[in-house]
Amino acid sequence: MKSRREFSPQTLSVLAALYEQPSRWQHGYALASQTGLRSGTLYPILIRLADRGLVEACWQEEPAPGRPRRHLYRLTAGGLASAAGALAVPARQAAGRPAAAAGQPGRLGAAAPAVR
What we know:
Blueprint: H1 9-20, E1 26-27, H2 28-35, H3 39-51, E2 55-59, E3 71-75, H4 77-94
Helix pairs in contact: 1-4
């Protein structure tokens, strides 16, 4: 997958928010609150991550009475691995180890399309 420096800071913040509770479905408003991103930035990121198979989305089954249904988001297995690798890069660098500790420079596995 991609190295941390290949993800935008905004995409990293979305990945980090989803990574905190990877099995829990989260709606966009909660992610916007966690990340501080506005909807015009957040939703395109979520769409790109979903298009690349890193995030899955579904409609909320039973919204609260009087509330519209919302899209819910969570990391896929591939998204979880990609997020773990991307978010771990600063920890490896802070510990004095090179970012490429697991293989090729700046690579965390198979090639993936650019996510920005």
